[in-house]
Design goal:
Blueprint: E1 5-14, H1 20-36, H2 49-64, E2 76-81, H3 84-100, H4 116-126, E3 132-135, H5 141-154, E4 160-169, H6 171-179, E5 189-198, E6 210-219, H7 223-235, E7 244-247, H8 254-263, E8 269-271, H9 281-292, E9 301-307, E10 311-318
Parallel strand pairs: 2-3, 2-4, 7-8, 7-9
Antiparallel strand pairs: 1-5, 1-6, 4-5, 6-10, 9-10
């Protein structure tokens, strides 16, 4: 059996569907974080919502695990999944160039057209000096980041990883998606969900919000079924042991339910309310599953996600006992 990966802290930041009061609360939290991370009274400058969401979620995950920041050490790495947020930045950036010529090429925004800038800024702001990785794989970017972090922890490449996804779905991205003939992109919104993962137990980080028991991803024909089956094998669980299924996709398709039932998974299926947050949707569904399984009464939860690129990912999680 592949050993479980411990979840020591969960950080969530989002403004999708939030009212004015909730949005103001996020802004206050972010201001407090930036003030706490200031150097000689100088605050770091963030220029885009995806930076804000990612940094706030990262900081909260560390704080809830009892890790003081800035850390100043090499013990914690970063694996961040994002896609559409960067696509939106690129669309706006190039639209400005077409409209204003060279004067539209903002030197402040330009670094954000490179995906790994966000993860790098998290590392710099929090002084995390471990391995730093960015995953860009559409809606499943956050899922792939979690999977890679689990792989690195189990292989002993890092003792602790900060992993998850962030997104900023803006009008520019939705417009570009429509022009390209892509699927319905949903409504504008920003969000991030990051986990502080450890394996084996770290002496400095003892908190536990749950466990990741298994992970798998697949592409091509029968990708959903293959991902679920491989995930169950990774966790060495029988299909009947699954207590609930959380779908991190915009629609709960009949084919998904058919795949579950064909494999012998008879647990109730619920669609995550965070399914519209693209790269952050899978990590948010994992967080929801961990929260609902915190008492351990229903057994492990299966989280499943898929995208329009014929890809699928699945994770098995379990709350505290």
């Amino acid at each position: 059996m592949s050993p479980p990966v411990r979840v020591s802290g969960i950080g969530i930041a989002r403004t999708d569907g939030a009212g004015a009061e909730e949005t103001a609360g996020v802004a206050r939290r972010l201001s407090a974080v930036l003030a706490a991370l200031s150097w000689h009274g100088t605050h770091g400058r963030l220029v885009h919502p995806i930076e804000e969401m990612a940094l706030l979620a990262a900081h909260d995950a560390l704080r809830r695990a009892g890790v003081r920041t800035p850390l100043g050490g090499e013990d914690i790495g970063v694996a961040l999944g994002l896609e559409e947020g960067i696509d939106g930045i690129k669309a706006q950036y190039y639209r400005d160039i077409l409209r204003d010529g060279p004067l539209g090429a903002s030197p402040i925004v330009f670094p954000l057209t490179t995906p790994n800038t966000i993860a790098a800024r998290i590392s710099i702001a929090l002084d995390l000096r471990g391995e730093n990785l960015t995953l860009c794989a559409g809606t499943l970017s956050g899922a792939h980041a979690l999977g890679l972090a689990m792989e690195m922890l189990r292989a002993g490449r890092m003792p602790v990883m900060l992993a998850g996804g962030a997104t900023s779905v803006q009008g520019e991205f939705l417009d570009a998606l429509s022009v390209a003939g892509g699927p319905e992109g949903g409504s504008p919104g920003c969000g991030a969900c990051l986990f502080l993962l450890r394996f084996p137990a770290s002496a400095a980080i003892r908190g536990e919000a749950g466990r990741l028991l298994g992970y798998a991803q697949a592409v091509g024909r029968d990708d959903v079924r293959a991902a679920i089956q491989a995930c169950l094998q990774d966790a060495e669980l029988a299909p009947a042991q699954v207590g609930s299924v959380h779908v991190a996709a915009a629609h709960e398709s009949r084919s998904l339910v058919a795949s579950l039932r064909g494999l012998g998974v008879g647990a109730p299926v619920v669609r995550s309310p965070s399914a519209g947050l693209h790269s952050a949707s899978f990590p948010l569904a994992v967080a929801e599953a961990l929260g609902q399984a915190a008492d351990g009464s229903r057994g492990p939860a299966l989280v499943v996600g898929s995208d329009c690129l014929v890809g699928a990912a699945a994770a098995i999680v379990h709350g505290d006992e």
